[in-house]
Amino acid sequence: MEEDLFQLRQLPVVKFRRTGESARSEDDTASGEHEVQIEGVRTGLEAVELDDGAAVPKEFANPTDDTFMVEDAVEAIGFGKFQWKLSVLTGLAWMADAMEMMILSILAPQLHCEWRLPSWQVALLTSVVFVGMMSSSTLWGNISDQYGRKTGLKISVLWTLYYGILSAFAPVYSWILVLRGLVGFGIGGVPQSVTLYAEFLPMKARAKCILLIEVFWAIGTVFEVILAVFVMPSLGWRWLLILSALPLLLFAVLCFWLPESARYDVLSGNQEKAIATLKRIATENGAPMPLGKLIISRQEDRGRMRDLFTPHFRWTTLLLWFIWFSNAFSYYGLVLLTTELFQAGDVCSISSQKKAVEAKCSLACEYLSEEDYMDLLWTTLSEFPGVLVTLWIIDRLGRKKTMALCFAIFSLCSLLLFICVGRNMLTLLLFIARAFISGGFQAAYVYTPEVYPTATRALGLGTCSGMARVGALITPFIAQVMLESSVYLTLAVYSGCCLLAALASCFLPIETKGRGLQESSHREWGQEMVGRGAHGTGVPRSNSGSQE
């Protein structure tokens, strides 16, 4: 017996932790319930870090804890086959959203000529889509927080699909105005796919995966331009609208495979469903489930607007609203501005009042040429290097500095357009500007779901998306109407707005790099799990849930 006890004393007590994995809450730590106390045996735990992507050995999966949180399960299961499938499905939603947005810059000049619309009606056709998105973004966020991410996403996709196809049969301007507005109302819910996606991702993979999902946005914009090159000359804009709805149709068929977010299920008190979802993911990934009981942190008061303005989130919310506004204002402004500048030939052709009038006459009815489509395609391709640059810097500089850098470079490129440049240099500057403003958008999509707790995550993302639509709503009147009066004033507006957004990014109070997702809005920031970047002597603690 003494010999066995002697051998037991010699064995090191090892607790496996994946890098950045959540620990128990401070309450659990204080109680010591998760540690095994044996008289005469040392109780200190030797921390062993696993390499990125390495699975926790099955025999050591959660060996000393009798409870675990969803965060622990997601980290232990890791990234695998389930997340790859979810990436493709979420990507389809983004591809569809991008095509519906990109079609605006193609449809506007076409209807301008075909229906002889004045410039303000062309701008209104673009703005009405963003009115729909602005009015619905907060609603979809509230639905997703109250009734589930999957529910909100399915309804919004089916809504967008129905009215997207119906708008192809619009007989007159007033009909297409109303139907495209209803399409915009549905698109306002598509960003909730990021909320669902982020909640299934382990911390180490979250930023990279959300950024790579943005590749589907770039694919969608490029595919829309290529589709327009082949469809517009022969079949016309109505068929373009129908064919552009194909990714939505595919997503609508496949979205029933989507599980509900386990984080949402836990917060809504549905423990059994959450465990079933986690077991399903573990089975698909071939990884072990953590041992013990899942901690419940039920919260009934989900999706409340006032939770976005608590002392911990007030400045974050206000600054994020301006950042999202500036992002969409500049991004969609550049998309529309690209079409107008390419049709004019160069910046100088509309740089003076006299030439502006001449340009206005020449643009009164001018279809997009093959050269315009090719230049539009080249500037659209800039979204791919934008993703790669953001992917490279976001985990090095952090989320805040990445957004600030993207805004600053866009502002610089806008100022360089003040110089009378030729078409080649114009294309290059627009290429760089679009790469970095799309990168800023991608960084905002990473940061926003990370900074808000599960109880208000969808609402927080929804309200930010709504503010983005306000910017997108205003931008046609700058990029299309103000441009006819002064190209310099137009460029100054975009440059100044992004310069202020860069400052706002620097002043955000919370950096989410290396932090886990907060669960309950009743908890404060500052005690969330910290990844490898925090070289402290103590073990980082998670304070994202409580047991009831």
TrEMBL record:
The keyword Plastid appears for this protein: no
Main location group: membrane
Cellular component terms (Gene Ontology): synaptic vesicle membrane
Transmembrane region(s): 86-108, 120-143, 155-176, 182-198, 210-231, 237-258, 312-332, 376-395, 402-419, 425-447, 459-479, 491-510
Keyword check for Flavoprotein: no
UniProt-recorded name of the protein: Synaptic vesicle 2-related protein
Annotated source species: Suricata suricatta (Meerkat)
UniProt entry keywords in alphabetical sequence: Cytoplasmic vesicle, Membrane, Synapse, Transmembrane, Transmembrane helix, Transport
Gene responsible for this protein: SVOP
Subcellular location, record wording: Cytoplasmic vesicle, Secretory vesicle, Synaptic vesicle membrane
